Structure formats: structure tokens, C-alpha cells
Amino acid sequence: MARNLTRQLALWSARVFAAHPDRTEPIYFALSGEHPVYQENAFLSSRRIFSNANVYSIHITTENRFLRERIHSMLQTHLLSVLPGNCALIQLVSFLPNQNRSVIPGFIVQDFQRKEETEIILKDMAKINECLLCSYKKSEGADLWQQSIWCATEGAEVKGSAHYIIPAAKPAAHVSVLNIDSVVFHCFEDAYAALQECKESIPEAKEILHLADQSPRHMQRSNFPVIVIEGLDATGKTTLTKSLQETLKGTLLRSPPPQLSHWRDQFDSQPAVIRRAFYALGNYITAAVIARESEKAPVIVDRYWPSTTAYAIATEVVGEKENLPSLYSKVYQWPTDLLKPDLVVVLMVSPEERIRRLQERGQVKTQEEKELEENNLFRERVDEVYKRIEGSICKIIDANCPKEEVLQQVLHLISQYCRL
Ligand SMILES: Nc1ncnc2c1ncn2[C@@H]1O[C@H](COP(=O)(O)OP(=O)(O)O)[C@@H](O)[C@H]1O
Ligand SMILES: Nc1ccn([C@H]2C[C@H](O)[C@@H](COP(=O)(O)OP(=O)(O)O)O2)c(=O)n1
Hints:
Blueprint: H1 2-8, E1 11-16, E2 27-31, H2 40-50, E3 54-59, H3 65-82, E4 87-95, E5 104-111, H4 116-129, E6 132-138, E7 145-151, E8 156-157, E9 163-167, H5 175-178, H6 188-196, H7 203-214, E10 226-231, H8 237-248, E11 251-254, H9 258-261, H10 264-268, H11 272-293, E12 299-302, H12 305-316, E13 343-348, H13 351-360, H14 369-388, E14 394-398, H15 403-417
Parallel strand pairs: 10-12, 10-13, 11-12, 13-14
Antiparallel strand pairs: 1-2, 1-4, 2-9, 3-5, 3-6, 4-5, 6-7, 7-8, 7-9
Helix pairs in contact: 6-11, 7-11, 8-15, 11-12, 12-14
The structure holds adenosine-5'-diphosphate (ADP) and deoxycytidine diphosphate.
């Protein structure tokens, strides 16, 4: 067991948020034997973390994804309040390069005053939460740090667990990409299993699971076309879907469906795996309604699987859109067990026009420059994912033009791609 865990801690990326709030770039270093690569810049970064302080790391190793995220956020709040002054808390992600689902979240604690009290607090906390705690010592006469693992359940150091820290090259895949499978579900069973992990703590999850159980599965669209409208908030989806409903004399649906919408606030505040599983199951429940309604009239759907996927990926991945999973990743592929529409139209507007529309609606009044900058990157990531899932059924249109022109563009696409 301990051997296995040691292997899991092979390569790290740390995001500093307490000691150096201006530093958000990940820094990488590896443990000896696993990835013996030396790089000057990375070496300086690990030096900055390990010199002049007693250093510990905490790793949340539970397999339950819901508990893992819960413990992580609870530990963060708790550590910030109980650690002695002069300690810094740094977010840490351990992972094996290029290995999906190898990500283990955690923290680095730097104690600049080298107090015994800090170690006692951390050992107690690791015991309660069944976390793994590591401490670091500088090797005699060498510019190297050595890691020892302390096992909470055994209350002792794990024998033979010592490793040296060595700087490592930046891995090919961004660490956030390795965790994507936790938030993008490729089939009904995956999303269902994720909600099951939390059903004892969140009673509403049982109700969603029950609704999903009752919903007919593997439904196909019927005689009439099914058109999905997608895009960021305020790109004009509500306006366009209403016009399409009137013009095509169709049925207007949205995902999540009305019977789930009153649970949205509750699930939006849950760890990402649970939040995304909620929306994913919402799509499967909507699919059954789409199938039924498309027997009677054209169906227009306001948001569906592309929203779930685009927001899940864009939230999980940080920074530039270059960090997104590669173009050919299976995360962009439509799940084979989910009803596929005839056409998906993605509305795209310029950031300026979108802000103008939000302001007209009375939103985004006073946002700090920095926050806006991060929003810009987020918007770019969402739009980029939409582009990457663009396939034979997914079409992107420029929706900066007046409402009537947007409608005409979409009607033209419908006449090209759907049997009316
Ligand atoms: N093509 C358009 N040109 C100008 N304003 C638009 C256009 N489409 C929608 N709007 C306005 O922009 C705002 C956001 O539109 P809405 O349809 O609610 O977007 P969404 O449903 O995507 O959030 C509304 O005030 C709407 O009247
Ligand atoms: N099928 C869906 C629908 C929405 N979502 C998520 C994605 C975002 O976090 C929000 C966006 O929904 P919201 O209702 O705010 O969007 P609009 O106001 O309709 O533009 O919901 C989803 O994941 N899957």
C-alpha cells in the first residue's frame, strides 16, 4: 500500500497562493528514481519552496472523488485558521505524467519558524482525515532535499519511503487534463456512479438518481428535427430559441429540464465531479423528452451535452486555451448512448458585444480588471471547446448581428441540415 502511494507522489505541480500570491505558474519537481531530469529553472523553484523552512506536504488519497474534493476544501479553510503565523500554505497536485486519474490533491506547508507545534497539528489533521503526510529534510552536504512519508493509520514513518527531490521537465500534458475524466462523463453509467458516491451526504442526489432510473434510455430522435442552441451566457440563446419555436411551430426544451432546475443552486455549490454529474444526468433525462416530443413537432433545445462538456472542461483546465486536451481527445466526442440532435448551433459574439448585452440586462456592473482578465481566458476556453466538438452536426455562427439576421442564418442552416 505505502509503496503504491509513494509511486503516486512521483511528480508534483505546486500552485503558490499564500507564500507568493503573485506566483500562479505551476512549478514541477520529481522524486528520485522516477523521473531523473534536471532543469535549472525548476531547480530554483524547488529551492524557493524548500530552503529556510520546515516543509511538509499533505496528500488526500481517498478514492471517493466527492470526499476528496470535500476534504480538500475543508482542510484549506481549517489549515489557514489553525496553522501558526509565519506558516505558508501552498496548493499542491501530485500526479504521474501522462497518466489519467493519477491526480492527488493536497497542500505544502512551509513553517519558517520551524515550530514543533506545526508538526503536531499536521499529524493530528492527517489522522482525522486519513491523509498522507510527508516531511522534508536537507541532505548533509548536498543541495538536495529528502522526503519521508508519515502514515496516519500506522502513526509512524513508512519504512523505506525516503526519496530525493529532483527538478523535472514540464510534462507534455497539463496536469488539469489528467483529471478531465472525473468531470466529463462518456456514458450514463459513469455519471450515475459519480452521483452515487455522494448520495449519503446529499439526499437530493437520490432523487436525481431516481428520476434517471425512471427515464427511458437509448432513445432516438423521431420524425421531426432536433436543433440544439448553444453558446455562452448572453449570446442570445433565449431570444433565438423563442423565435425558432414560433417560426418552426416547434417544442422548446432546455437542459437541465424543469423538474431538475430547482436543484441547480444546490448542485452548483458541490465539488466539480458532483456538479457535472448532475448536468450530465439532466441531459439523459432531457433526451427521453426530446425523443417523445420529436414524434409530434420540431424540437428546439436550449443547452444540452455541448454545454455540459464545454463548461466542465473550461472550468477544470486553467490558463490559456493551449492547456486544453488535445484536438483528438475523446472528451470532445458525443457519448454513443446519448440521443444526438440533427444540428447544434453555437452562437458566438465578441467579448465587447457580450459585455454590452450583459450590461443591458443589468449584469457585470463593477468587475475588477483582474477578474475580467480571468473571465476572458475562461470564455476563450469555453468557445474553444465548442469549436473542438464541432463536427458534422455542430455549426458555429457569428451572432454579433441583429436578432433577425441571427434567426435567418440559423434557418438557413436548418434548411441545409434538417428534414422539415
Ligand atoms: N442578435 C442580438 N443583437 C442584440 N441584442 C441581442 C441579440 N440577441 C439577444 N440580444 C439581447 O441580449 C441579451 C441576452 O440575450 P439572451 O437571449 O437572454 O441570451 P442567453 O439566453 O444566451 O443568455 C438580451 O437582453 C437580448 O435581448
Ligand atoms: N445542459 C447543461 C446546461 C447548463 N450547464 C451549466 C454550464 C454552466 O455552468 C451553467 C450555464 O447555465 P445558465 O442557465 O447560467 O446559462 P444561460 O443563462 O442559459 O446562458 O449551467 C451544463 O453544464 N449543462
